[in-house]
Amino acid sequence: MQHDASQDAAAGALGLQEKNAYLAALLRRVAKHDAGAFEALYRVSAKSLFGLALRVTRTTESAEEVVQDGFIKIWRFAGTYDCAMSSPSTWMSAIVKNQALDYLRRNAYSGFYVEDIDEHLAPVDPDDDFALQFSVDAERLSLYLGRLTPVQRQAIALAYFRGQSQSEIAYALDAPIGTVKSWISRGLESLRVMIDARPAPHHGGSY
């Protein structure tokens, strides 16, 4: 079947049922390694899937990487799509969301480096509990964060460096909100212990 740009434009005007049928037809063709169908699928779906990835990862660069990896999986596993189980959009969204969660698990700070931590902690805002409790140089704080469990580190990074709410973090990490609260609470307590246990500086020196 010949595809052209007019089909993409028409797809946007279709009702939900017709759009699902159109996407399912594209996936069937993609399963046969039809590059034209894959290109059409990308044009029709990439924008919404990028929005999903961006909500989870919160940065354009990471969302772009997630969507790229997600479409690679869609290309590879299109043959496993079953229209009786879910709509094409739901199936592709699940792939991209899983890629986004994998990205967060692989990248504890998801793009935050010492300079970014320093920017978030200085100058100290009297209303910023995190900055007040952990008024320590960014490099040392980065070291302490690295000693936390991965889930504690991720939850704290998302909460204090990304400004995400606990419900947003629960969605991003696919965990109950009570579990997220526990990760943050225990992680902060571990940071307090590490900071309180740091050796005092030598007189007249630095550390």
From TrEMBL:
Q: Does the keyword Transcription apply?
A: yes
Give the UniProt keywords, A-Z: Sigma factor, Transcription, Transcription regulation
Identify the residues that the record assigns to the RNA polymerase sigma factor 70 region 4 type domain, covering every copy: 140-191
Instruction: Report a single Gene Ontology molecular function.
Output: sigma factor activity
Gene3D superfamilies in the cross-refs: 1.10.1740.10, Winged helix-like DNA-binding domain superfamily/Winged helix DNA-binding domain (1.10.10.10)
Q: Does the keyword Transmembrane apply?
A: no
List residues of the RNA polymerase sigma-70 region domain.
42-108
A Gene Ontology biological process noted in the UniProt record is:
DNA-templated transcription initiation
**One Pfam short name:** Sigma70_r4_2
Protein family: Belongs to the sigma-70 factor family. ECF subfamily.
Name of protein: RNA polymerase sigma-70 factor, ECF subfamily
To which species is this protein native?
Answer: Paraburkholderia fungorum
